[in-house]
Amino acid sequence: MARRRFTGQLSASAPIFALSIPPAYVNTTAARWFWATVVPMHYVIGHYRRRLARP
Q: For residues 18 and 6, which has the higher predicted lDDT (pLDDT)?
């Protein structure tokens, strides 16, 4: 169970960091805001998985 949660969170984090690379060349503050979306994304993934686990 924990392995699936970790894999889901990691799979959400990687694209966010990848998308933050181009803005980092132009504006580092914009890249930081992309990084800040990781925390809400983990919450959304956890909430979605809990809803799917309900019988």
A: 18
